[in-house]
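Human: Cast an eye over this sequence-structure pair and say how the chain folds.
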Amino acid sequence: MSLNLAWNNEQQDKEITEPMIAMLEQLLNLAGEAEGVAEGEVALTFVDDEQIHELNRDYRGIDRPTDVLSFAMNETVDEELDIVYELDEDEEMEEMPDVLGDIIISVPRTILQSEEYGHSFERELGFLFVHGFLHLLGYDHQDEASEAEMMGKQEAVLAQAGLTR
């Protein structure tokens, strides 16, 4: 098995090219290797500012657009019910892919930030994608130490892929 990227670009206007997707798949595998994650699937959706604003408001209680959101599938809540599958004797359970979660990226915000920081759209897209992936794995940046750790991991993966500032 390996890490797989499923992506959707039907919700915003900028073309996301095959070379961009190939770059993101490379980053996914580099980040996965760095974090010891050898298999799983990440769903990536490109949206506009209006859609990410709505998601940010509805799921995080923050009433403004953001650049990237991550929704991890491997988080559990105390009240969460176990799913039990009952199979007949002659049935086998198909192996389900380990879905790590969803990453949502605002393309207009990616364009704006790439211009503000003076680097390419691809570099900013890669940065946001790796950032979102690390959130799926449980990393956060609530204080200076955790932010420094996360930034270091992101920059190391981007440097491996040649996406420096």
About this structure: Helices lie at 18-35, 49-60, 107-117, 121-136, 144-160. The radius of gyration is 17 Å. Strands lie at 3-11, 40-47, 68-72, 99-106. The CA atoms of residues 142 and 160 lie 26 Å apart.
